[in-house]
Amino acid sequence: MNTMLNENIRVLRTIRHLSQVELAKSLHVSKQCISNWENDNILPSVEMLVKIAKFFNVSTDSLLGLDNLKTVSVDGLTDIQIDHIKLLIEDFGKANKPTL
Predict the structure, then answer these.
(1) Is 64 within 8 Å of 5 (Cβ atoms)?
(2) Which domains does the chain have, with CATH numbers?
(3) What pTM did the predictor assign?
(4) Which residue has the higher pLDDT, 86 or 69?
(5) How confident is the prediction for the chain on average, in pLDDT?
């Protein structure tokens, strides 16, 4: 099928230190579903794609490899620290936009 979806699911799962079994339980699917998605054997339904995106807090475009978003692990950080990182990312994004 040659999609980036399989790789993105695997990367997001491993960043969160989740096994296929743990992710399957969280999404209420079988471990075999996760394995099939990650091995690019089958694609999740549109509804499941949205559920996966919400679970990992990413866009469906990001999951499908249609944008250039990168993921950063925030494991072990407090909510305040995560908010600071979000602000830094926004500031860097603004600094890279050309001014008129």
Answers:
(1) yes
(2) 5-71 (1.10.260.40)
(3) 0.65
(4) 86
(5) 87
